[in-house]
Amino acid sequence: MWFRRRDEADLILKMNTGSGKTVVGLVIAKSSLNEDKGPAVYLVPNTQLQEQVGITASELGIAWTDDPADPAFRQSEAVLVVPVHTMYNGRSRFRLEGHGNTVHVGTVIVDDAHACIPIIEDQFSTTLADTTPAYKGLLKRFNSVLKEQSLSGWTSITTGSETQAVPIPYWAWANELASSYALLNAVTETDSKDHQFKWPLMRNQLALCDVAFTSKEVEVRLPYPNLAVIPSFTNAARRIYMTATLADDGILVTKMGVDPNCVTRPIAPSSASDIGDRIILTPVETSRMVTIEDVKASAANWATSLNVVVIVPSRHRANEWQPYTSEIHEKTTIKAIVKRLNTQHVGLVVLIARYDGVDLPGDACRVLIIDGLPERYSPAELVEAAAIGGTEVMSSQQTQRIEQGMGRGVRATDDYCAVILLDPRLVGRLYSAADLHQLSPGTRAQYELSATFAKSGRSKPMSFFADAVDAFLARDSAWTNASKDAVEGLTYSSLSSVQPLLVAERDAFREACAERYTQAFELLQAQFSSISNARYRGWIKQRAASYLELVDPVKAREIQVKARIDNNYILKVPTSTAEPKLSHLGNQADAASAHLGQYAKPRDLEVVVDGILFDLVPSTDKNSHKRFEAALDIVGKMLGFNASRPDATTGIGPDNLWAIGQDSYWVIECKSEAVASQVSREYLEQLTHSADWFESQYDISQHPYLPLLIHPSRTPMWDAVPRQTARVMSFDLLAEFRIAVRGYITALCSTDSYRDPSEISKNLNHFGFAARDLANRWTQTFRAPAKR
To answer: Which range is most confident: 1-15, 564-578, 589-603?
Structure first.
């Protein structure tokens, strides 16, 4: 198939991991050299995979090198095997556009394309610490702008108290472009060695960059990789993208500039059943009898004789495994631990944020636990997540990373690995993905088989699931036969067409890079009406306006105002700070029924609520406070209240606002990342500011309100005085609140009555959620201040 189509500039090769993908890629590279289509470059995500590809090449007798200056590579006698960042960096030995003679390349193989994309994206982003002159200089220039965008965010940046990210509006960035360029261009290697490898890739397109601050760093990031900056890649006669798990290859169009026609016609084997065997279990979500600690105890037990690998999103989550293992590894120690796992029994190993780019075949990993959704932590990523989190675009990207993670332990068709999903939000994401067909055919079939088995595990202890894992690992014929039948006859999926928006995004960016800003705007403008999701439509309108700003600022601002109507989590113009007044929804049970009725099945609702309640647990994990506030917002709506997040949408006001009926409101400040045993003066002042905001927006003679602080403690510090009417929900009471919310939802789902207002009303009363009972049941008075 490839040979017949080998002269097409872009080709996608889809094969399951372990089905000989690396061998095929190397043979294609060698064949291209034989055809005088060299030199040939084989790109991989990291040095670990570079080493593995090199070993395979040697076994095949294919000459290879890891040195771009090697004459054997330059003369098309050997394949160059390097990590993708070797080609894409500001000091690339392939030479940047306009920097002398670039290295001629005839063929490029991109292995694990899905894993290479975020690495390439990161090369077009520079992050500078708050200790650097550039950070301080940029902060000084944009201080007032940050305050306009978010008062609470600006406060967190200037006090260093939280991890909130605040974006710089593109119009303010355009006004300070020359001075910002000077600051970034003056960054020394002492300030940031990393910057030296990224800045040259970005500096000619600085006007197109997104910029965001936190109290710790500032990030300057191109919205899409400008691949043309390395002509060796874009001018290659052949570019072959090898991918195993991407169900939707549209991301290759937006991020890699792949020809859309190539995406709809991938090269793939006739069958997709060439996949290793997996059982995918969700014990905590399946059975209320199973706790997270039960799963961890079972993992420790398996680890006495097997290698058990846990993938977590952050250091905070990794620390929760410390009672069970000391083998916790991140970037600097990954290579060594992977080598140990591949050669010996290690036991229980935790890997931080390694959802891709790690191979753990055979006994290197027999049980794989995914404990947490892959999170986004850079300033620009935090801004994007706040703006379009929950949209199908973001969900699809997250699903792909989850699937990549689940594939770490199965690296051949005869390999097998038990996979356990531990985070309720992760389970919910995968549950939705299965419905939306965002998973690859093999993973979807294995997940559905496991889900069918799991139905018999409701109300069963962890031993039920542990026995299933043991039987699977022992290659019990009941499992192996069922697994084989599940994947039999599967074929690889491909898109019948590429969404026009994806093509427009990439083409618009190319036009903007060529300084054809009006054309860039018009390409995106033509897609506005086709975007059904309002939040994503607002996001794309904002991107279009950012291009137009560089030639027509007045019209760009008009587009931005319209974008804010679609999505009030994006940049606000100075005239758009007013928060629409939150109205009451009428009968509480009717309102709750209307919200809950959007879920098609009781199980859909239960899975979503599990994830929401997980986010409603206080945590010091980075950016967890945003997830907490979003969860509280949804809980309010599930209880039949109207709810909003003024601080997130306007940058002023409380974290959460509930309209609870009888013209009454709750003004809520959430301190879910707090750990102090007393309430600080700063926190009570924030609650007072939010109360003042409410009084400036609403007639309190008609709309009584309750200022509420969610905090670990009820006791103010000696110098802290609560507002007269303020109350508190301690973390202990919050825990009871979560239990009651779960009970409320479980009761409605168990009888399939979550759409029935009369049943909802009964349960609202039973669990203390009726508006008249809410304050007495779920809030507390502050205690007397602590003694000095």
So the answer is: 589-603
Backbone angles phi, psi at 659, to 5 degrees: -100, 105
- Is position 575 within any domain? no
Distance CA 240, CA 238 (A): 6
Q: CA end-to-end span of the chain, whole Å? A: 79
Q: Which of 355, 454, 463 is nearest to 409 (CA)?
A: 355
CA distance 217 to 183: 15
pLDDT score recorded for residue 417: 94
Residue in 539, 738, 715 with CA at minimum distance from that of residue 631: 738
Q: Which CATH number do you get for residue 89? A: 3.40.50.300
- Report the DSSP pairing between strands 79-83 and 64-65: parallel
The C-alpha atoms of residue 105 and residue 231 are separated, in whole angstroms, by 9
Same domain, residue pair 515 and 470: no
pLDDT tens string 212-255: 999 999 999 999 999 999 999 999 999 999 987 656 688 899 99
Whole-angstrom Cα distance, residue 485 to residue 389?
37
- Give the tens place of pLDDT for each residue, 279-330: 999 998 888 899 999 999 999 999 999 999 999 998 889 999 999 999 999 9
State which of 441, 458, 487 marks the end of a domain: 487
Looking at the fold, whether 168 and 256 belong to one and the same domain comes out as: no
Q: How far apart are CA 253 and CA 246, in angstroms?
A: 13
Same domain? For 548 and 477 the reply is no
Q: How far apart are CA 342 and CA 360, in angstroms?
A: 7
Q: Biggest alpha carbon distance in the chain? A: 84
60 within some domain:
yes
Q: Could you tell me if 365 and 397 lie in one domain?
A: yes
Kindly report, residue by residue over 583-637, the tens digit of the pLDDT: 888 899 999 999 999 998 898 899 899 999 999 999 988 778 899 999 999 999 9
Each as own residue / partner, the long-range contacts of residues 192-199 (CB below 8 Å, 24 or more positions apart, any chain) are 192/126, 192/127, 192/128, 192/129, 192/132, 194/126, 194/127, 195/126, 195/128, 196/90, 196/91, 197/89, 197/90, 197/91, 197/123, 198/89, 198/90, 198/123, 198/124, 198/125, 198/126, 199/90, 199/126
**Residue whose C-alpha is closest to residue 214's, from 156, 172, 142:** 156
Residue of 488 and 293 predicted with greater confidence = 293
Q: Helices (H), strands (E): how many in the chain?
A: 35, 21
Strand partners, 667: 657, 707
Helix (H) / strand (E) containing 450: helix 441-454
Which pLDDT belongs to residue 443?
84
Q: How confident is the model at residue 577, as a pLDDT? A: 52
Nearest to 234 by CA among 87, 47, 36: 87
Which amino acid is located at 538 in the chain? Answer: G
pLDDT at 666: 98
Query: What is the rounded distance in angstroms from the CA atom of residue 759 to the CA atom of residue 684?
Result: 39
Residue 24 shares a structural domain with residue 46:
yes
Which amino acid is present at 88? Y
Q: Which residues of 675-700 are buried (b: 16+ CB within 10 A; e: fewer)?
A: eeebbbeebbebbbbbbebbeebbee
Q: Are residues 690 and 674 in the same domain?
A: yes
Q: What is the DSSP code string of 541-593?
A: HHHHHHHHTTT-HHHHHHHHHHHHHH-TTS---TT--PPPPPPP-SSHHHHHH
Calculate the alpha carbon distances from 244 to 20, 249, 327, 469 in Å.
Answer: 11, 11, 29, 25
Same domain assignment for residues 536 and 648: no
Q: How many CA atoms lie within 13 Å of 320's alpha carbon, on the beta-carbon side?
A: 20
Alpha carbon 381 to chain centroid, angstroms: 8
Classify residue 643 by its DSSP letter. Answer: E
Q: Which domain holds residue 419?
A: 277-487
Q: Are residues 437 and 307 in the same domain?
A: yes
- Counted domains in the chain: 5
Q: What pLDDT is recorded for position 159?
A: 87
Q: How many residues does the chain have?
A: 788
CB-CB contact of 57 with 64 (8 Å): yes
